[in-house]
Amino acid sequence: MGKALDGVRILDFTHVQSGPTCTQLLAWFGADVIKVERAGAGDITREQLRDIPDVDSLYFTMLNHNKRSVTIDTKNPEGKLVLEALIQKCDVLVENFAPGALDRMGFTWERIQELNPRMIVASVKGFGPGPYEDCKVYENVAQCAGGAASTTGFDDGPPVVTGAQIGDSGTGLHLALGIVTALYQRTQSGRGQRVLAAMQDGVLNLCRVKLRDQQRLERTGTMKEYPQYPNGTFGEAVPRAGNASGGGQPGWILKCKGWETDPNAYIYFITQAPVWAKICNVIGKEEWATHPDYATPAARLPHLKDIFAEIERWTMTKTKFEAMQILNKYDIPCGPILSMKEIAEEPSLRKTGTIVEVDHPTRGKYLTVGNPIKLSDSPTEVTRSPLLGEHTDEVMAELGYSPDQINALRSVGAI
Ligand code: COA
After folding, report:
1. Is residue 165 lining ligand 1, measured as CB closer than 6 Å?
2. Which whole number is the average pLDDT over 223-231?
3. I need a surface site. Which of 198, 226, 282, 307 has the fewest CB within 10 A?
4. Is the pLDDT confidence value at 246 over 90?
5. What is the three-state SS of 198-224?
6. Is the pLDDT of residue 364 over 80?
7. 371 Cα–ligand 1 center, Å
């Protein structure tokens, strides 16, 4: 059976993390992704955070599976001609250069349309139009400017960035959706279009609930599910909520057996209203099921700290997995705090292809995160990332260049 995006050709002009996340997803859905890199250097992440000398880093390999790599110097006049040929052959150009870089290369939107009116040009930028549109942006800049950092962490500490790469990988995901949507529209319009995903916008989209809370705060001056309630104070802006749940069912991270030595012996515990009586039974506080201070969600809000302290007295007598097993029997929502080591070793994630072992010619075997989106008719097979320029000759031949022409271009440094 074919793949969902069979026949779609992507000119992948991406680097670092945000753009490569997007094109990797498209490759996993079956698109032919041709990554254009500079000869001799390539995507800067090939050499960043290396764990083996002179071998493509995990940073690179884990973001560039299922792609082909060609080297083209797009500032060389003859290299530009090769890029033009690729633009004419491809359906989508994806890039995440600093603002203006593509124009400076001579590939403005107008020029690309002249070459291929059906081409979709998809970009990640740090910011959308406005005061910061010319800025270069990395992950944590976007987390800060998109509202994530000011709302993450504890009230008595500084803003905190999250390890989840919501600015880079999150925006790559947004861009991928924009691209397939534009491809769909092209089936009716016959035209390409520009797709922009700004990292600030992507992070803010993921922080939507915090803008919700900002408005609730402005209207009522308080938010009863936040840890600042009832004894702390609220200012003008949404405060950091520690480990409080972002939704309507209060939750918190609680210690489990072994927490003194294991930094991940914790569980996330949600006091979902429909299972409150079961929670009371499990922790041995049966009287709370009917006590007026605890029986209803509204009555519980001023007592959340005490409630979680009492539940923690119970979770501390169990490992996170024992607690999970007991709580799941009663449909009480909870989640163990899993370390990366535990995740890497989890058999069920290997079975579903969410964690995949890949073999690489110079690195050997390594683990990666496979496609988190599973299509029943378009299963993903993860193949290794390309070596720098591994497919230059192959792609040049597909563009109609003869071996002599390829050699001539190589000798002048165009490819
Ligand atoms: N041949 C010749 N030149 C090439 C080339 C090629 N194959 N590929 C890239 N270049 C050139 C570009 O034309 C650009 O040149 P210019 O500045 O003279 O116009 C240059 O390489 C570098 O591009 P730039 O994007 O500025 O790289 P950088 O390393 O300085 O900045 C970022 C990196 C990520 C900060 C920047 O690209 C950016 O802000 N991107 C948008 C937001 C983003 O995606 N951020 C997250 C990254 S995970």
Report:
1. no
2. 94
3. 282
4. no
5. EHHHHHHHHCHHHHHHHHHHHHHCCCC
6. yes
7. 26
